[in-house]
Design brief:
This protein is α/β, with parallel strands linked by helices. Helices cover about 40% and strands about 20% of the residues. The chain has a single domain (about 5-150), classed as Rossmann fold (3-Layer(aba) Sandwich). The longest helix is centred in the middle third of the chain and has 18 residues, at about 60-80. The radius of gyration is 14 Å and the shape is globular. One of its GO terms (molecular function) is glycosyltransferase activity.
Amino acid sequence: MSRRYRVLMVSSSGGVLLDLLALRPWWSGHDVVWVAVRAPDTEIALAGRRVHWRPEVFASTRLRLVPATWRALRLLRAERPDVIVSAGTGVAVGFFLAARLLRVPSLWLETLNMTGRAGVAARICTRLAAAVLVQRPALLKTRPRAVLIGELY
């Protein structure tokens, strides 16, 4: 029997959410708590799950990262996850910064539609992540620390 981990999934809406939901065969065997940006699709997809709703944070607005990271630190201390998993956007940055401070490993999942230069949040989170997971072999060239997991859906 494998160990059950406390997993914190951090998501905004749209494709990022779809990528994290596609990991269900893995995370369904663990104790999962979500941090999500409230939107119609996240409310529907995460109905009945433990969710901490957070506003979207734009990583390019550095001053907003300070309070977002502080709130993330408080939540991480309360939830005590073993690992954090995210596929993006800005809401993830504060959690990856807080995770680094608390020495909680984080995994960054590059979204399937990512083909070019990564956005600000992705560039920050990939530097902070213990591992970067990619779905396309072509991304291994531009993300040397990446692990190819293949397309999720």
